[in-house]
Amino acid sequence: METCERCGHPLGAGRYCLNCGHPTGRGMTDTAERPAVRDPGAAPTAAAPTAGVPITPPPALQTPAEPRFPLFADEVARGPMPSGPPPSPTPPAAPPPNLPSTDHRAARAGRPGWLPWVIGAAVLVLVAGLGVVLLVTGGDDDEEPSARDTTSSSPEPTPTTEAPSTEPTPTPTPTAEPEPPPPPAEPEDVATRASAKVPATAPPNTDVEGNLVRFEARNMLDGVPTTCWRMPGDGTGSAVTITLDGPTTLTRVGMVNGYAKSSQDGRRTLNWYQGNRRVLVAEWTFDDGTTVEQSFGETRELQMIDVDAVTTSTVTLRLVDVSSPGTGRARRDYTAISDLSLVGSPAS
Fold this sequence. Notes:
CATH superfamily of the domain at 188-346: Galactose-binding domain-like
Low-confidence stretches: 29-37, 42-53, 59-64, 99-107, 139-155
Structural class: alpha+beta
Strand content: 15-25%
Mean pLDDT: 76
Radius of gyration: 77 Å
């Protein structure tokens, strides 16, 4: 029996091998048309039947098994996929020519058959066993059992919320800030708010124009120099008492020491300041016994003297020295004072 010199398959009566299509060299010449050489891995093409010779399809031409999806066992059998670009396909090596039929069957028998299925099944069993272990243990291999037991057996205490107090919150009483003391009042003449007690008062009279003129004590305290208090005769040694409207700190005292008025009688001028008696020296005495002496010049102007700040409610004016009356038609034997001045501020 002849065999194909390429694949070792028994040859039939035709000119080509029924297994691989290799020409057998029967009845072929150099000029005869030869069919194209078929790739051993490609699906075999059935050759035309030769008359009188029954053709039995080889095992390679039988209906192939239905394709299946790759399994995890196939991946494990093949090993990890190499990284990088896929390698260039290597064309299958042609089987050596003139192999005996026993070698051809051995080569076909060496292909992988049931071994990959066994390996895949073993891998599946191993994976299933690992899954069961993980399900049983819960997957908490890194956590200590004592920590898990403590957490499960010791629940956190529930915080207790205290009921709010119903007592009203006391409102702090605002503390009133002490008011600053008022600034000290500016010193002023307080004589206009005072009253006077005199030893005597001259009777009223008429002036050159026929007007009635009075010489009462309040004329010393009205601030008008042309009015005056006067007493008959020499007033030396007499005392005038002035009562203030309240305790007052005095810093200056003084007076207009005569009757500071003039009158026109026809062509003549009557000088009442020179015609009446004038105070030349006086003493001012206060509640604490302080006494200040003041001397006066011959002038109608207000004459003042400074005193140390003294707080008092009354002032006593004593006439220490009084002048003689003047001469001429204006001569009058009266002791006169036109104005008194007491400068100070209310005592704090």
